[in-house]
Amino acid sequence: MSLNEFIGQATTLTVARKAEFGYFLSDGTEDVLLHSNQAHQELAEGDEVEVFLFVDSQGRISASMTIPEISVGEYAWVKVTDTNPKIGVFLNIGLPKDILLGADDLPAHQSVWPNIGDMVYVTLRVNRNHLIYAKQASDQVIQSISVHATEKDFNKNVQGHIYRTAKVGSWVYTIEGFKGFIHESQRGNEPRLGEKVEGRVIDVKEDGTINVSLLARKEESQDLDAAKIYEYLMSRNGAMPYSDKSAPEDIQERFDLSKGAFKRALGKLMKEGKVYQEGSWTYVKN
């Protein structure tokens, strides 16, 4: 079998001879270079060594004693190290050259492409020219590594990374190993592929998957809305021409809140004795 068949995988080879810039390894038929900067220890002729095979920037098969978690057929979470809007994003798997996750394997809208530092769950693929690329895990692969949530997990806070995104929603794999779905109505902004998100479990399905909401819990949301209204009041010397009688469209335009959310937040401020209303105006209490 040709060494080309092992590109993107680990294999065991024998040290055939030492060279000025590293070692030549052999399978008995072909030789491949293990450069000195990819050798973790001194080797002698005849030693057997496990190496990972890849193609270097000159198009030659090379070896590394760094064995990545990821290989052809093996999946892992990998960090994004760079992005190029024309071709895709680059991933660090421990080799001298970062691996490309191509634009064809990324969402149609670049606004939800991964950023540097995001984590994607991928494997490796080798093209006809023996170049290595990353390939995203399918939904079936995620399903195969996931664990079933139970009713006890309902309403729990969860964290995880987005592994698929679409207009209708986003799919997340949580730290616990749950496979979850975030409906578009349960997210503020559409999260990026690979982005780490935090939300809460709002439903546990019969198949053990979960539905997740990224929206703040009602009490947390009220706190944020109240702070926004109070900050606006203070910016206007403690008075504003808005009250619980204001038109919904005016509230939406000024505060980006529904009238219901505005009234709840305003009611909270009034209950706390921070503001009062007169007519169609609201004032800060001195």
From TrEMBL:
SMART domains given in the database record: S1
Family named by the database record: Belongs to the CvfB family.
A Gene Ontology molecular function term of the record: nucleic acid binding
Highest rank taxon of the organism: Bacteria
Origin species: Neobacillus bataviensis LMG 21833
Protein name: S1 motif domain-containing protein
InterPro entries per UniProt: CvfB_fam, CvfB_S1_2nd, CvfB_S1_3rd, CvfB_S1_st, CvfB_WH, NA-bd_OB-fold, S1_domain, WH-like_DNA-bd_sf
Lineage: Bacteria, Bacillati, Bacillota, Bacilli, Bacillales
Annotated signal peptide: none
Domain S1 motif: 155-215
